[in-house]
Amino acid sequence: MRHVIRRFLFYIFAVWVAITIDFFIPRLAPGDPVAALVGKMSTKGYVTPQMQQTLSAMFGLNTNDPLWLQYFRYLGNLLHGNFGNSIQYFPTPVMTIIGQDIGWSIMLGGVAVIISFILGCLLGIIAAWKRGSALDTSLSPAMNFLSAIPYFWLALLTLYVFAYLLNWFPLSGGYDSADIDPGWTFDFIGSAIQHTFLPALTLVIASLAGWMLTMRNSMITTLSEDYVLMAKAKGLSERRIMFRYAARNAVLPNITGFAIAIGAIVGGQLLTEMVFSFPGIGYALLQAVNQQDYAMIQSIFLIITLAVLGANFLADMLYAFLDPRVRIERGA
Amino acid sequence: MQTQEVPRPTNIAPIALLPSNPLHTRLLNVLLIIWRAMTISRKVAIGSAIVGFFIVVGLFGPFFMPYNPNATSNLFIAPPSGAHWLGTTVVGEDIFSQLIYGTRTSVFWGLATGLLVTVLSVLVGLIGGYFGGWTDDSLTLATNVSLVLPALPLAIVLAAYFPRGPLTIAMVILITNWAWQARVLRSQTLSLRSREFVTAARASGEHTWRIIFFEIFPNEIGLVVAGFVSTTIYVILTWAALEFLGLGDGSIPSWGSMLYWAQQAGALGGGLWWWFIPPGFCIATLGAGLALINFGIDEIADPRLRPERPVKATKSKKEFHADRLSEANHDSGVGGLLRNERA
Amino acid sequence: MVTNLHTNAQTNTLLEVKNLNVDYLASNGTVHAVTDVSFTLQRGEILGLAGESGSGKSTLAYAITRLLRSPAMITGGEILYYPRSSQEERNTSRVTLTRLSRNGKREHKKNGNGHSEDEKQPIDLVQLSPAQLRDIRWDELAIVFQSAMNALNPVMTVRAQIMDVLRTHRPHMGPDSRKQRALELMQLVGIAPDRLRSYPHELSGGMRQRAIIAIALALSPEILILDEPTTALDVVVQREILTEIMRLRETLDFSVIFITHDLSLLLELADNVAIMYAGRIVEKASRRDLYLHPRHPYSFGLLNSFPALHGPRRRMSGIPGSPPDLRAVPTGCSFHPRCPLAFDTCHAVLPLLQPAQGEENGQIVACHLYDSRFKAEPPATADLARAYEALAEGRGVQ
User: Fold this and answer.
1) What kind and span of H or E run contains B35?
2) Do A153 and B302 touch (CB under 8 A)?
3) B212-264 pLDDT, tens per residue?
4) In three state form, how does the secondary structure of A215-275 look?
5) Are C165 and C178 in contact (CB under 8 A)?
6) CA distance A94 to A87
7) Distance of CA C108 to the CA centre of its chain
8) What interface predicted TM-score (ipTM) does this complex get?
9) What are the residues whose beta carbons fall under 8 Å from the beta carbon of B271, sequence distance 6 or more?
10) Please, where in chain C does CATH 3.40.50.300 lie?
């Protein structure tokens, strides 16, 4: 229990750090973002003094208030779910837009991570168990190469081959927005699947190698442990030894890696979404960067951070559940 | 985060260089070890060859470029031809020249930033591990927080606010990537610190900084090298990613910026494969080379991971001797790399 | 099928190892870890296996249980196991642990000829397939590893590790009887039953070793192999564990192969002792015979390498030199470079195990000193003592 509390406090602290970073970045950056923004927006239309006010407020540049007051007001806003208004879609609040997009990202990311983790670990276990066999010797170098390929380039490639050349899948979007309306209809879901398939495939392929290789190496080390030998001496079935004795211990480093990889996957997913123009948070971030919609940029960063921290916390709990040695208080 | 093994391929044991050897001997030993590593492991050899190739192209390639990479021309979006081996961009620049120049930019910025990150993580890891107490606690907290915050989103946010350019990207990558290696080195330093040669050094009144950098650090070089290789892979990938997003200086040709411009020009929809496939392929290949070196180092350090040769009862002794170099030398520096030295 | 009419008394042999050879196929030469080892284990016997590190004793144990890992492999010989026929009953004086019946277990323990086990035909363990091995393992033959901490799965409770053996080998047992059995075992080795729910890292060293022994005895095996069971423990716990094992042996009636480098332990516990050197057995004797008159100079050296608690002060020499590189064993007798009594035949001819001249007590030794073809008069124990003393005093070899 103490372990759980300690980890929870740590994550709360990390959240606070993220929020504080978010608060200080615009105030530390050189130049005056507001002026630049106003300049940009005036090309599109008249910038009302009200809008200017909002912008300044957002950047905390009505600096009558001392810094700490601004900070607490900022925190207060966050806790109320008030992330400010988007500049691109002024005056729509940021949360509305994010709320629409986040579902897509979760779907894509969730499916991809789970599939690649399970598949990768299984492949790693089998490769290690049948070490030296044809499967192992061909799989490992292939995975090595695969693991170094940048997500987004793989995405570009798959898009080019399967969408442009072969025309099996659509080039962009989350669903066929021209013809179909969102809703729980077969048409919509079918279209969504069609559009999600390539990005998901890319993500799975790109991250599969990492799981497989680390699982394999961990398995090989574990297989030389005495308790595996004892399990063999006990006459247990191969399957039981492989899973209950070897894999159960070998997967532990991968669980930690699973948590860290959540962050990496989020990053990679960002890029994949951008390449596929998939209407998730990543794509929204891209547009925000291009349009210099700072409110969006900051808010998306916070949302992603919260999601990652939450996933990490869950993974920590999972690890403690799986490895009883961790549950005891450990000094440095 | 717990102090558990991070699943990156660096499960390496410290290379024990005798602390009492003079510096030049130790440096020589390090070079010998590197040479040994390259010739023993096939993976390291292939990986080094790949990396070496790119470094050479980066160094000397730009002297042999057919065109100035920034020179525009009237030949827009031309497919590969005799005049332009990889075709041209949307404003008529020669892609092949851009690729070569981009090699120099990407490789060297990647290596330099990787080095910076490694230096920072070494400092944090060593200092935290050695001094313990408050210093260690606060550094560890910083490390853990940095590990847990998502790197790429943070990098994007940071880079969006600061002026575009390689310096910004380098700083941003530095800030988001030092933590992992720092943690590994910290735990290594902790275990080395309790060893007798450190106690002896302290008892003889050696200066703290000397102890850290001349006694403890040489024993961690293996870890540091492996960490540098890992980090550089990530740095190169992240660099390209940030440039792809348009956060870099688009006017300097690099692999990432080439991809950015390709995307902007709709290369994908337009089927301009010669524009976006080569730079990505270079990134992937360089990354693969570095990854091979990493896995090779892993295999050297942990003999259990080495490829098993099928054991046949009829295999003659001569074959065995020919396969491996003689294991006869047992002196510390060189032999240490081959023996699995778990403390 | 012809029924074998041998009675129990005649075939008391439990395990017969014949000319076993184990090699490690390393890249820089083949290591002959075990060469031409033969011995017999009777029912109820405690056989001690002694030798320095690298003498091959652990390799031998792993070979018998077929647990060798690549690149080690058995390159020759037989390991004949004589299973108890179903008519036999075990001689137990006080059975506190019920012997688990084999009902419901598939009877396919057949030897190479295809005869059923009722015929008391031995099974060659070397020839068994992995499936057949799995049947025999733990049921007939259990091994206790050196380091209990490493031998227990860190993520499973002690109870789970007992139960999975029961589940695999006694599929007809229900979960209740399995739990009952686990409790019995805990009581047997003297661990509090609530410890069943503990993980290995929560137990002390001594408790872990007891747990390992409990698991080993779960199926009441016929042979228990102990590979340096107490080396990692302090002396007090050592004594406790060993007393425990001996007591259990009385109750459950199994044979023991006890492997250790500590000869003094064997002299107390074992019935017979075999001494290994460089992969071969160089002497085998009952403990009394070995203690009173060790024949092989190596045995003598081992016995006398710890000082007596009383008696006149004398110089200790130990045995000079170090064990040979098993890739390049010395010609002839592998001990000759270190032997204070070596003579010219010793580096030319390999000595074979045979009784010392004129002896009828079953003590066999592989040494030319006792071969009438080479030496007219065998040395007495006192002569061995003198030769070692001469070594210690630096006067050179006789």
Assistant:
1) helix B23-40
2) no
3) 887 788 778 778 888 898 899 889 888 888 888 888 887 888 888 888 888 77
4) HHHHHHHHHCCHHHHHHHHCCCCHHHHHHHHHHHHHHHHHHHHHHHHHHHHHHHHHHHHHH
5) no
6) 9
7) 27
8) 0.76
9) A160, A164, A165
10) 13-83+120-275
CA distance A85 to A41: 15
Q: What angle do CA B94, B95, B97 make, to 5 degrees?
A: 75
Of C105 and C309, more confident: C309
Half-sphere exposure of A144 (CA within 13 A, CB side): 23
- C139/chain B closest Cα distance in angstroms: 30
Residue from C102, C138, C153 whose CB has the most chain A CBs within 10 Å, to mutate: C153
Touching check for B342 and chain C: CB below 8 Å?
no
The yes/no answer on whether domain C13-83+120-275 falls in CATH 3.65.10.10 is no
Backbone conformation region of residue C253, classed left if phi is above 0, alpha if psi is from -120 to 50, else beta: left
Q: Two tokens at B128?
A: 């935290």
- DSSP designation for B215: I
Measured torsion, CA atoms of residues C182, C188, C193, C199, in degrees rounded to the nearest 10 = -70
Alpha-carbon distance of C145 to C143, in angstroms, equals: 6
A254 touches C: beta carbon within 8 Å: no
**Which residue of chain A is at minimal alpha-carbon distance from B299?**
A217
Q: What is the pLDDT of residues A156-184, one digit of tens each?
A: 778 778 877 777 777 666 666 666 666 66
What pLDDT digit, counting tens, does each position of B53-95 carry? 999 988 888 888 788 878 777 777 778 777 777 787 778 788 8
Q: Which residues of C touch A232 (CB under 8 A)?
A: 67, 137
Q: What is the pTM of this model?
A: 0.68
- Non-local (6+) Cβ contacts of C119 within 8 A are C1, C2, C3, C4, C85
CA distance, residue B331 to nearest chain C CA (Å): 18
SS3 A57: helix
Distances (CA, A) of C70 to B156, B174, B310, C61: 51, 45, 9, 15
Q: State phi, psi for C48 to the nearest 5 degrees.
A: -100, 140
Identify the band that residue A215 occupies on the pLDDT scale cut at 50, 70 and 90. confident
Considering only CB atoms, A271 lies closest to which of B147, B241, B246, namely B241
Q: Which chain B residues are closer than 8 Å to A217 by Cβ?
A: 9, 11, 298, 305
Chain position carrying tokens 């060859």? B49
**Mean pLDDT of the residues in chain C:** 80
Among all chains, which residue has been given the structure tokens 């960067």?
Answer: A289
Nearest Cβ partner of B320 from C28, C73, C75?
C28
HSE-CB of B293 using CA atoms within 13 angstroms = 26
Using CA atoms, how far residue A31 sits from A26, A28, B163, C270, C311, in Å, is 10, 9, 9, 88, 94
Lookup: tokens for C179? 């739990």
Residues in A closer than 8 angstroms to B284, CB to CB, are 145, 148-150, 153
Greatest alpha-carbon pair distance for chain B in Å reads: 74
Q: Are the CB atoms for B245 and A275 separated by under 8 Å? A: no
> Helices (H) and strands (E) in chain B — how many of each?
14, 0
The secondary element (H helix, E strand) that includes residue B47 is helix B42-60
| Residue A277, pLDDT above cutoff 70 | yes
Candidate from A224, A232, A244 with C-beta closest to C67? A232
CATH code, B40-304: 1.10.3720.10
Q: Which of B11, B14, B26, B35 is nearest to B333 (CA)?
A: B26
Read off the tokens for B64. 């042999």
Domain boundaries, chain B: 40-304
Q: Residue B239, Cα to own-chain centre: how many angstroms?
A: 13
Work out the minimum CA distance from A230 to partner chain C, whole angstroms: 6
Burial class (CB in 10 A: 0-12, 13-18, 19+), A173: middle
Instruction: Tell me how close the Cα of A310 comes to any Cα of chain C, in angstroms.
Output: 26
B243, B137, B225: which is closest to B186 by C-alpha? B137
CA distance A116 to A123: 10
